[in-house]
Amino acid sequence: MKIVIVTGMSGAGKSTALKMLEDFGYYCVDNLPVPLIPTFAELINAPSGEIEKAAIGVDVRTSRTFTELGGVLKKMKETGIDYTVIFLEAKDDILIKRYKETRRVHPLAGSDRVDVGIERERKKLSSIKKTADFIIDTSGLLTRELRAELEKIFVNDENYKNLFVTVVSFGFKYGIPQDADLVFDVRFLPNPYYLEELRSKSGNDKEVVDYVMSFEEAHVFLDKLTDMVGFLLPNYISEGKNQLVIAIGCTGGKHRSVTLANALFERLSEQKEYGFKIEHRDIEKDSRTKHR
User: Fold this and answer.
1) Which residues neighbour 200 within 8 Å (Cβ) at sequence distance 6 or greater?
2) Average pLDDT rounded to a whole number, residues 24-51
3) Is the pLDDT assigned to residue 54 strictly greater than 70?
4) Residue percentage of the chain with pLDDT more than 70
5) For 177-218, what is the HEC assignment?
6) Which CATH superfamily is domain 2-154 in?
7) What whole-number distance in Å separates Cα of residue 155 and Cα of residue 152?
8) Among residues 271, 84, 258, which one has the least CA distance to residue 163?
9) What is the pLDDT of residues 235-255, one digit of tens each?
10) pLDDT band at residue 64, thresholds of 50, 70 and 90?
């Protein structure tokens, strides 16, 4: 019998995750009062039960009983009822944006602002987050990417280490990505922009890739960067980090940065124990600016 406890920050995607688990064949119950969780688990664990796997959504809406969750889960483990806890996380600014877009009221905000409610919720959830089996930060995830991560864990039984890595290319003239954890400058490489036949193309085109990678410095940079990131990933995990943004920049974010970001993403993607995505933030900005 598989039991999944889905919890985390309000607005981080718990309801969406439950719907996805339902698609995966889980019997899902949302907002079950905490004291009833052991009873529910015992019922579905009964030999005559027809339910093979279940997911229970628990959050601060059950504010009066939520503080009992840690003790309840501990007792379940002691009585032999096994379960997995998945914690959905998101950055404060993303949560605030989502609340403003949906015009919903944060369950712990009361008459205060949303950010006050978020702060209160983080304090309430701090202990359960520390004991969670999986932490997924949905700040930069599309719905399909969240589904892919859940599928890795609960369908394919793939090893998951609570770290999602985004490799993003950008142009320095448009500013460094605000959420970048690691920033690398590839403006030391010759710029394809100054070659007429390459100017209109991007690092997604073979001609530009061949030009940029024709320089030995590009290969040395890529080798050293891959080696360093490979060293950092497990150490970030041990420190509790669950979201990493690696930003690679050139002048306009169209040629060199795109080429190197793609190359790094391709190498890193071979490490199946982590989640990866690639973004090219400024690849189209030059063409849009010129047509104004």
Assistant:
1) 287
2) 84
3) yes
4) 93
5) CCCCCEEEECCCCCCHHHCHHHHCCCCCCHHHHHHHCCCHHH
6) P-loop containing nucleotide triphosphate hydrolases (3.40.50.300)
7) 6
8) 271
9) 887 776 778 999 999 999 999
10) low
- The domain segmentation of the chain, as residue ranges, is 2-154, 164-290
Higher pLDDT, 96 or 107: 96
